[in-house]
Amino acid sequence: MSKLIKFVLAVLFLSSVSTGTAFSQSPVIDSVYYAKAVGGLINYYQNSPDKKLVLYNGPEHRGYFRQIKGFAYFDTDKMVNGNVLYDHVWYKLPLLYDLVMDQVIILHYDGLYKMSLVTERVDQFNMNGHVFKKIGLTNLDSKMVPGFYEQIYAGDSISLYAKRSKIISELLNMQSLEREFQSKNLYYFLISGSYHSVNSKKEMYALLGSKKKAVVVYLRKNHVKFRKSKEAALVIASKKYDDKL
After folding, report:
1. Which residues belong to the signal peptide in this entry (predicted)?
2. What contacts 120, CB < 8 A, 6 or more positions away?
3. Cα–Cα distance for residue pair 193/154, rounded to 1 Å
């Protein structure tokens, strides 16, 4: 973002010098003029070759062997329209989320191959109505690892996150090796700035405090079992804790 700001300020300065625009003109005229100018320059910057140098500098994504059953990505193995916050600038573009490598995959600007975005420079991305945020080392539960987490529920006093991942399992069957992508989801509450594992009913109830009884009653009344519908139960618990249900 710092490069973008410097770029905008530099062009505005040169423009004012070359056209003789005085910075002491009417504040209203100045504000309108510069708002339009900044908007235009940001649009130009994001669609210029410089943007390609910033966004398209990750390694090539070669994918996986076709013999492996399933696919490595979140929700679909087809590119879907999404939004990525990269170096503090939002970009709208087709993408995939690789759950094996925990990487955001895009098409190179020439359209010839897929590539991985530099993870350290991605803060957040959205796809198909799902919001993924990068969580670092601060206030992590001991069972968590830094990476991208889906924000399933964001409330006033509690938020629910899921760590989506896949592994490649191998099974020797009739003297042949079968390989398959297997999904794994781990869940965490964010309460008072700290993350807490909620991957068992015991862990969930231990964090609900005085709201535990209301959650128990609601889950029973609506026939929601934690073991069979863990994510649904956690969303209900989050909303009850937040007095939104």
Report:
1. 1-24
2. none
3. 13
What's the mean pLDDT in 186-199? Answer: 96
Token representation of residue 44: 């130009």
Please write the tens of the pLDDT for every residue from 194-215.
Answer: 999 999 999 999 999 999 999 9
Region 126-133: mean pLDDT is: 98
**Residue 182 resides in a domain:** no
The helix or strand, by DSSP H or E, that contains position 220, with its residue range, turns out to be helix 212-221
Global pTM value: 0.79
Q: Domain tally for the chain?
A: 1
Tell me whether residue 42 is in a domain: yes
Asked whether residue 12 is assigned to any structural domain, the reply reads yes
**Of the candidates 197, 181, 199, which has an alpha carbon nearest to the alpha carbon of residue 189?**
197
Find out whether 117 and 55 touch, Cβ atoms under 8 Å: yes
Answer left, alpha or beta for residue 20, where phi above 0 means left and psi between -120 and 50 means alpha. left
Token match 């760590």: residue? 163
> Which domain range does residue 43 map to?
2-47
Q: Which residue has the tokens 């910057």?
A: 45
Distance of alpha carbon 134 from alpha carbon 111, whole angstroms:
27
